Amino acid sequence: xxVRGVPAESEAVAAQVANLLVIQxxxxxxxxxxxxxxxxxxxxxKAAQDAVEGDAGALWRRRFFAWFETPQFQLTGQRKxxxxxxxxxxxxxxxxxxxxxxxxxxxxxxxxxxxxxxxRRRKEQAALRVLRDLINxxxxxxxxxxxxxxxxxxxxxxxxxxxxxxxxxxxxxxxVAEFIQKTNILKILGKDGRDYFALKPSELPHHHTSLLYTxxxxxxxxxxxxxxxxxxxxSGFHEAQKMVYxxxxxxxxxxGLNGQSVNMTWLLKNIQFWRYHxxxxxxxxxxxxxxxxxxxxxxxxASQLRQGTRRxxxxxxxxxxxxxxxxxxxxRKGESGQGHxxxxxxxLNGEEDPDSPFQSVDLALCSTDDSSTWNRDFERHLNSLKTxxxxxxxxxxxxxxxxxxxxxxxxxxxxxYRFDGDGNDYEEEFHMQGWLNPLPPxxxxxGWQRVTMMKYFVDxxxxxxxxxxxxxxxxMFPGGxxxxxxxxxxxxxxxxxxxxxxxxxxxxxxxxxxxxADHNEFGDGMGV
Length: 528
Description:
By secondary structure, the protein is α+β, with helices and mostly antiparallel strands. The chain has three domains: 8-66, no CATH class; 68-185, no CATH class; 186-230 and 239-298 and 309-521, no CATH class.
């Protein structure tokens, strides 16, 4: 209806302004709503729908950045398409993160709607993919030239961190921690319902629970804290003890078609083993571990994860466990603590020394990585410089794991780094020499590395005592903050007769330094 004295054009402009004002007000309201109320608001009227979906969906981008860090997925440059990607990613993530807040009553007990079991169910797989997405932001390819394919890919967590910002807290890791507190994902370590010892080594990294195990290993720092919500149940130690003392034939650290897949089952049992000794009241190391400052315990990475060998911390704290030679076979047979057999007690480095309950090791990159100066006897035991080969995948599972067939055998593009170390063991000074070798992404998460090192002692003439060598092989977790693995005596049995046990080391700051800055950085020209 026209208004007397007002031109029709002005009336149309006024109506347009009023409509835009309604949309703007609706948009301002939408920004303040939580997800549940936003759904109801969007359905209220056309103006509300336009406020939510208008401007090509810019509201979803704004909500994404309020919860998460800058994504690393490929932008097309087409605004409408890219904003639609933000909407899809936001809704996928919040659908998983929100479902755990929906509580229902079962016989008077409140339980979350999402409960992890073996990682095989559809809901579990969806949640695990979101957790991986929060860490990565991209799905990393697995191929024969994994370093060439992924060397420049960085993960989403810490993507907004500025250089030198030591106070930065990752939004994505905060979302992960909130999720963990409300689920049982860290309370079911290694409970996939399958007998590990009945599996072939090649089967270990490819079964349905491998992503669950990988996520649990990546979240290891949360398993070494004394917060009220962390897992108090220490059951499963008997199986963990058996696993960590197994020889490298029965339980290899690296498995799979190309020997480049981390044995997550074995690694998870190591975490269980050390949790028992560090967190169980009555264990010798428990009061010492509890007395550590927060920055002296295992911690998360503090920068974007990247593929390949990137850095090595200077200062490390940790321990190793051992039993008498005659007791190892009892443990390996699973007879410790069973029937009339008493539980064999692990002996731990430093447990009887209140002044130095944990082993301290300083590691530093060598000024040169010339392999010609690498001790041949060390290499014979450690195989640090062995170049992994990729073989043709012949089965469907192998093709899925390796990224498809290759043309015969192709060398992986590798960049390995050599380091030296020093420490004290029962007041006796020792030395170490070793190598870091990059591993391909494990279930889509980059940053894993193989660690090999030889611990040795020197006599008064500075000659290496070749009768007192201790070999180490382990896995450096993504971010370079934790390593776990196996030690063994090269001169005391091989294969099933080898004398071996577990070790753990974690990177710590020294003299109030920031641990994220306390690293040797690798240069482009230092690899071999």
